[in-house]
Design a protein that fits this description.
By secondary structure, the protein is an alpha/beta fold. It has twelve helices and ten strands. It is about 40% helix and about 15% strand. Helix 6 (about 130-140) packs parallel to helix 7 (about 165-185).
């Protein structure tokens, strides 16, 4: 997901976010208590990750990126080491062709054997206005590997200072319905930025309008701290409340890529390190733990997180 997609509506939504944060009375658990739990046996609050990339040799397939971190054994090793429950694994267009037709089923099978669910991750902004493309992507992915779900990362609002959501949201939901029509029993999920819950559409918000069309949602709330009016909790709270009210399972997404990619140091843990990531994620878990629909924290993304751990 793009830094532009996250930040394009920030200026327009920040005032609403501050009001909501104050009304909700968000207070984070004391950091010292969280650190004590980190030093004990409590599992990480991070439960899933976006895995953008592949190990395919670009000399054999133009879509290949040649990243060994995506070999099945390497994916399993990392997921196990970090106690992950789920991996959103990037799936290209025409996944059932070329080298991807061998790698994807091997990766999914390996993760399944480790008890980890795998969602096919993908998307392009053009899909929102051309839903048949989303349907074709789903069809090809299902023909390639036994994915547990589909995770759409489609950002038709990216790069637009004031996107017309009254036009975009109906297109977006039509795309999701086209995907559902060919997905059968495989659930459909989506990555949605927190600020959609601060933008009115119809009788509710843009986030409200999309929720009936998904079976799960990753709420993108990029910040490098959990508390405060611009922290992860306050950003995600309205969207989390809406998802919980609709009984739609949700995770909270955080960033670990460079400030240049994230749109600024305040949106990523890149400059803060792995301990800060775990500490702040634990604060997020402490706040949302009593919400039945809450499924943990999702990290953006595999290679960036690995680079963070290596620093």
């Amino acid at each position: 997901m793009s830094a532009v997609g996250f930040g394009s509506a920030l200026a327009g939504a920040i005032a609403a976010m501050i009001v909501v944060a104050g009304a909700s009375g968000v207070t984070a658990s004391p950091a010292a208590a969280v650190q004590n739990s980190l030093e004990g046996s409590a599992p990480s609050a991070v439960t899933s990750l976006w895995a953008w990339g592949n190990p395919i040799d670009p000399a054999t397939d133009a879509r290949g990126l040649g990243q060994p971190q995506f070999e099945p054994a390497a994916l399993v090793s990392f997921a196990r080491a970090h106690g992950l429950h789920s991996v959103y694994l990037s799936v290209p267009w025409a996944a059932n062709q070329g080298a991807f037709a061998a790698w994807l089923p091997s990766a999914v099978q390996a993760l399944h054997h480790a008890g980890i669910s795998v969602s096919a991750l993908g998307g392009d902004s053009a899909w929102a206005s051309q839903p048949s493309l989303a349907a074709q992507w789903v069809t090809d992915a299902l023909a390639t590997a036994p994915f547990d779900a589909f995770q759409f990362d489609v950002e038709p609002w990216a790069g637009i200072p004031d996107p017309d959501l009254t036009v975009i949201v109906p297109q977006y939901t039509a795309m999701l319905e086209a995907a559902k029509a060919v997905a059968g029993d495989t659930p459909i999920g989506a990555d949605l930025p927190w600020w959609l819950a601060a933008k009115p559409v119809g009788s509710g918000t843009a986030f409200d309008a999309i929720l009936p069309h998904v079976q799960s949602v990753a709420i993108v709330a990029f910040s490098d701290h959990a508390g405060g009016p611009d922290g992860i909790i306050a950003l995600a709270q309205p969207a989390a409340d809406a998802a919980a009210a609709a009984s739609v399972p949700f995770t909270i997404g955080v960033e670990t890529d460079t400030p240049a990619v994230a749109g600024g140091a305040q949106y990523t843990f890149f400059d803060d390190g792995p301990t800060a990531l775990e500490t702040q994620a634990a604060l997020v878990r402490s706040h949302f733990a009593s919400v039945a629909a809450y499924r943990g924290v999702t990290v953006e993304h595999l290679l960036a997180w690995q680079a963070l751990l290596a620093r």
